Amino acid sequence: MKVGLILAGGEGRRFGGDKLIVLTDGRPAVTRISDVLRAAGAELVYVATRGEQRCKIYTNIANLDGCIYDPDWLACGGPAAALAGLETLQARVLLVTPGDMPWITPDVLVRLEAFMEQTEAEAALPMHSGGFLETLVATIRWSLVERLPEILVQLCRLRGELRASDPYRASTRLTLVGSGLLTWNPIVFSHINTRERLQTREPKNNLGPKDILVTEPHLDPFASRDQLCLRLARERSEYHKLGIIHLERQAWKDLLMFCKQ
After folding, report:
1. Per residue in 39-52, is it b (16+ CB within 10 Å) or e — as a string?
2. Alpha-carbon distance 50 to 70, whole Å?
3. d(CA 171, CA 17)
4. What is the pTM of this model?
């Protein structure tokens, strides 16, 4: 079974309102995204939100199966925290999309999952031009979802914050798919961060090359300090060689935080 999860969105300061219920081509964004997840194979679709009132609004509008909340036992919030809230569910694959990307299409997720399966990875992400990742669009094996609660708790203790890339850096194998292999239309990855962006549909990044990169980050916050620092150095070096700027910066930040003398 596959589960779909709609992340983020909600009340955006720059947007000036609730992005999930804004009309895009005559339909609420949350409804469009829910339909995309179901068309990509999700039998159940949930939305990550913080309040029961918003949960009722979203589920009624889009006929969702429920809401996911940040766990009380996790002191850090953000998109990664929502993945820890899936601990009571069981599935084979998790399909993830942001709530402010209403023009995403099912084939993006279908292809992303196919590349994940072919490379025997635990997760797959789109990669745009310049080595930047779309960390809120992903396919994830449930083996990784099940490990995330304890990993995220430990990262929160060590750092005091969680990053959207943390779940993927904790995978045993991660596949990065050039977004040019997932679609021909860059508008698919447009976020509605502002009212202007809703009109222009201009994407933040250009589509990535038609390449696939496979890496084995295996971020382990339970490792000894020496082992953790060694792994982070190797991780950063590999990202640098592959041109994955997004993750290279994250690994470098962790090196400075955990390994400085």
Report:
1. ebbbebbbbbbeee
2. 7
3. 35
4. 0.92
Long-range contacts at 61-64 (CB < 8 A, ≥ 24 apart): 61/21, 61/28, 61/30, 61/31, 62/28, 62/30, 62/31, 62/33, 62/34, 63/34, 64/6, 64/30, 64/34
DSSP 184: S
Domain extent, residue 154, equals 2-259
pLDDT in tens, 132-148: 999 999 999 999 999 99
The token duo for 181 is: 């292999």
Three-state DSSP state, 160? coil
CATH classification at residue 112? 3.90.550.10
Percent of the chain at pLDDT exceeding 70: 92
Query: For residue range 84-125, what is the model confidence (pLDDT) as tens digits?
Result: 989 889 999 999 999 989 999 999 999 999 999 999 999 999
d(CA 123, CA 125): 7
* In the predicted structure, residue 15 carries a pLDDT above the cut 70: no
Q: How far apart are CA 164 and CA 153, in angstroms?
A: 14
How many domains are contained in the chain?
1
Are 216 and 250 contacting, i.e. CB atoms less than 8 angstroms apart? Answer: no
